[in-house]
Structure to design on (731 residues):
């Protein structure tokens, strides 16, 4: 209850921090916010060249197939790497002003969320060009985005707390994210995975999220109930696991940084 | 309203901040945790600040003032005790914190305001006022990386000054801008005060503080020494400052004695001057060889004993109805490290008022004349044995916790003791006869207390006390 009250008091801080991050990310660059659109477009083109034309992955409409998975994935990785140092680099703030410390990683996740949402400006038109018209199942998209954001927030809390005490986590994270990227069916369909490994694949929360996005955007279907349950479990586990070290470190934060 | 109940705060001082992965792995396998010392920054702080009061915390560097402010604000969480606050707190601990150089002054005002916990609507209302207070004019619409340092600071100050908290905490940041701006800030604070807001200041600017505040709390080594009228507290602070310096001289003596003598001789060779000069030399040396934090626990323990014994003495005195009684201070046991010498003083006054009926006069004189460094120091020992005008025999006590440092270490090294409490005896006296009888060399210059401190084997204790007592006038 106290926590919620505090959050209400500091909601404007959250808003301002998000807008600060949003405004300053592309400040002093010519194309500004356009980069949020151009960057993923270039990546999609490069992967299409590599995996559709050269390696010849047999997937229908590879660019669409890749885009629907890559965008949520890059939302995930961008949040992680940007929020990693959100606590340890804000020592000057933490030592001088009191506010709920969760706001720091949260504001970065939200700012990344904004960038993610902006990409939908081109996602829908391109999907329609390729003949994928929005189905009513698309209405479940906000729920999936919200749950994914909560999931990401949990992981960010965990990582930024660890980063305060253990800076090596940054380099470890780079490796983990690369491995994680290839273990998640982003550039290849999950159908390619042999049946006996399938269970391990489905333990990967990002597989679930990515599949959910594809179901909704490409197949125009709601994810099956098992997926929803898996998403809910992944989200709550991530929040619990993230909050635990965070609560442990919160009290000493101002001293340890 | 702010209330602190028995608040304590400790910090971890990591012995080795950055370990390599290999070392970490080895330590992890061996089950070793990273080692750290715990240092108490504040101990058992209690006070109550009512609405509308203006209070200052003063004290030397490292006395815990800023830590206390951060505890009140909520940046630190106390390790013991409780802090209760009612009302909206705004704090000025650092100026322009969270300003982003690429954002305009306007955007930064809103950002900074929200960090202090004020919402957009309220900030919008005060925006004009903030801009005019900061005197930065149209610059408010340009990115603040184009600002001068002064403008940056003034903007930061203005945001904190123009919002409307119930309680304002200020840490040593009033020295912003030119004199005119400072005056403006002060008058702003006056307005705050007359509007019935609570203001808490940490500052070294004593004249300002004395003029502005209703009450001053003096902190020393993490404890409250005085909590009261500005004049009294400041006076006490001054005496504490001169005292702390002289205590250092005394403590430094043990370790740097030879050096000190050499230097003294050297200097004396250079310029033949009187005793006064020597004091200066010792002070210089003490500054070069600061080894004296160790004084703290020694005094703290002693003070507790002293306080306890005074309490007991108080009881006995009230029973004795004015007849003179004998106090056996030897019987008092150490309970726990708890409070400072000043706590003892407080107890003393509570128990007896200004002149206890039948309490040995020399105690009062000793305690009250705290400007006399030797007295101050001598009080910090465990087995207090009065020698009247002749001096005091004291036992020095070193807590295990402090064995790694300075004088404490020296004592432990020289004595090789396994006890929890290590004691050494020393003598303080103005009387040459006592010194000689107790096996000390003759003392050439009475003010040079530093030379008289010697660790002494425990078995000599009884003998020494008996000698001292036999010479003592009572």
């Amino acid at each position: 209850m106290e926590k919620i009250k505090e959050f209400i008091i500091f909601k404007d801080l959250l808003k301002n921090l998000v807008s600060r991050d949003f405004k300053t990310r592309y400040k002093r660059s010519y194309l500004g916010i356009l980069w949020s659109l151009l960057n993923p477009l270039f990546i999609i083109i490069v992967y299409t060249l590599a995996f559709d034309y050269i390696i010849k992955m047999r997937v229908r409409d590879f660019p669409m197939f890749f885009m629907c998975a890559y965008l949520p994935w890059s939302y995930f990785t961008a949040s992680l790497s940007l929020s990693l140092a959100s606590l340890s680099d804000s020592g000057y703030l933490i030592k001088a002003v009191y506010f709920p410390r969760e706001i720091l990683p949260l504001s970065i996740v939200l700012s990344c969320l904004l960038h993610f949402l902006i990409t939908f400006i081109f996602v829908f038109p391109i999907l329609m060009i390729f003949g994928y018209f929005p189905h009513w199942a698309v209405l479940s998209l906000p729920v999936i985005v919200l749950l994914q954001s909560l999931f990401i927030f949990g992981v960010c809390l965990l990582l930024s707390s660890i980063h305060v005490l253990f800076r090596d986590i940054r380099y470890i994270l780079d490796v983990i994210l690369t491995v994680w990227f290839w273990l998640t069916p982003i550039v290849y369909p999950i159908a390619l995975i042999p049946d006996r490994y399938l269970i391990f694949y489905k333990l990967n929360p990002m597989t679930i999220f990515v599949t959910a996005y594809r179901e909704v955007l490409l197949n125009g279907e709601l994810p099956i109930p098992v997926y929803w349950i898996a998403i809910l479990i992944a989200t709550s586990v991530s929040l619990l696991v993230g909050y635990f070290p965070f609560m442990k470190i919160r009290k000493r934060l101002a001293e340890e940084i | 309203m702010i209330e602190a109940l028995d608040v304590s705060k400790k910090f971890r001082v990591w012995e080795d901040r950055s370990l390599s992965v290999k070392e970490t792995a080895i330590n992890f396998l061996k089950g070793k945790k990273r080692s750290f010392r715990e240092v108490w920054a504040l101990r058992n702080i209690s006070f109550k600040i009512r609405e509308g009061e203006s209070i200052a915390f003063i004290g030397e560097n490292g006395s815990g003032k800023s830590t206390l402010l951060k505890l009140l604000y909520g940046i630190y969480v106390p390790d013991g005790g409780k802090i209760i606050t009612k009302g909206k707190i705004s704090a000025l601990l650092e100026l322009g914190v969270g300003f982003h150089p690429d954002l305009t002054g306007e955007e930064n005002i809103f950002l900074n305001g929200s960090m202090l916990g004020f919402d957009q609507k309220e900030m919008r209302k005060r925006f004009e006022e903030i801009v005019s207070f900061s005197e930065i004019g149209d610059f408010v619409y340009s990115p603040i990386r184009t600002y001068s340092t002064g403008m940056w600071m003034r903007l930061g100050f203005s945001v904190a000054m123009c919002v409307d908290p119930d309680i304002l905490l200020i840490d040593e940041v009033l020295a912003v801008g030119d004199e005119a701006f400072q005056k403006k800030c002060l008058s702003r604070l006056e307005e705050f005060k007359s509007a019935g807001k609570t203001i808490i200041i940490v500052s070294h600017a004593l004249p300002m503080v004395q003029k502005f505040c209703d009450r001053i709390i003096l902190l020393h080594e993490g404890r409250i020494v005085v909590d009261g009228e500005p004049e009294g507290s400041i006076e006490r602070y001054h005496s504490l400052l001169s005292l702390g310096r002289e205590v250092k001289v005394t403590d430094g003596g043990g370790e740097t004695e030879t050096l000190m003598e050499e230097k003294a001789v050297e200097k004396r060779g250079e310029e033949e001057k009187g005793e006064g000069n020597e004091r200066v030399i010792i002070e210089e040396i003490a500054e070069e060889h600061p080894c004296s934090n160790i004084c703290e626990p020694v005094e703290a323990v002693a003070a507790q004993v002293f306080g306890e014994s005074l309490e007991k003495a108080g009881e006995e005195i009230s029973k004795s109805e004015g007849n003179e009684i004998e106090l056996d201070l030897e019987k008092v046991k150490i309970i726990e490290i708890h409070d400072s010498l000043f706590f003892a003083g407080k107890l003393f006054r509570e128990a007896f008022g200004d002149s206890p009926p039948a309490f040995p006069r020399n105690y009062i004189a000793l305690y009250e004349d705290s400007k006399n460094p030797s007295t101050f120091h001598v009080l910090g020992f465990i087995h207090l044995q009065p020698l009247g005008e002749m001096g005091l025999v004291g036992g020095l006590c070193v807590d295990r916790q402090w064995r790694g440092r300075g004088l404490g270490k020296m004592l432990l090294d020289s004595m090789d003791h396994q006890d929890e409490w290590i004691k050494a005896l020393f003598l303080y006296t103005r009387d040459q006869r006592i010194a000689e009888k107790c096996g000390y060399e003759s003392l050439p210059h009475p003010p040079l207390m530093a030379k008289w401190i010697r660790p002494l084997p425990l078995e000599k204790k009884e003998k020494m006390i008996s000698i001292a007592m036999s010479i003592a006038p009572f």
